[in-house]
Specification:
The protein is about 65% helix and about 0% strand. It has about 140 residues and is mainly α.
Length: about 140
């Protein structure tokens, strides 16, 4: 499945079993991209992250982080803000409760990006709207 087919099939706001399929797709392409840059479809990965961002589940934060960290291309394609579908404060609290190195790395990146101004005027609704315009 590519980006266009995923967008047609699931839209930007999938729910229920469709969210499980989005997670599966993201995991699969993250694995491929980690194996060798370019093997995963980073545009599809980005769309999956947008779809999960729109769902707003804290349980998807580390899945999105793993996708972002899969390669340099994925890191550039997947905005750090996509970790924060439940809001910046809730995401930071969630990550601080995990004792995994990847959670600590994600939290550190959020802190650095926040200090750099990347979250100035951040709102979930505004970012969701920007992605809706992007994928039109």
């Amino acid at each position: 499945m590519d980006e266009e087919e995923s967008l047609r099939r699931y839209g930007l706001h999938p729910s229920g079993a469709d969210l499980d399929e989005v997670r599966r797709l993201l995991s699969e392409h993250t694995r491929l991209e980690r194996r060798a840059q370019g093997e995963g479809d980073t545009e599809l990965m980005k769309l999956c992250c947008v779809q999960l961002f729109n769902a707003g589940s804290l349980e998807d934060v580390l899945l999105i982080w793993r996708a972002k960290a899969a390669s340099m291309d994925a890191g550039c394609s997947i905005d750090i803000q996509l970790l924060c579908g439940s809001g910046l404060a809730r995401t930071k609290t969630h990550l601080s409760k995990h004792h995994l190195p990847e959670a600590a790395a994600a939290l550190e990146r959020l802190h650095r990006c926040e200090a750099a101004g990347d979250f100035e005027d951040f709102s979930v609704g505004a970012w969701s709207g920007q992605y809706a315009a992007y994928y039109r």
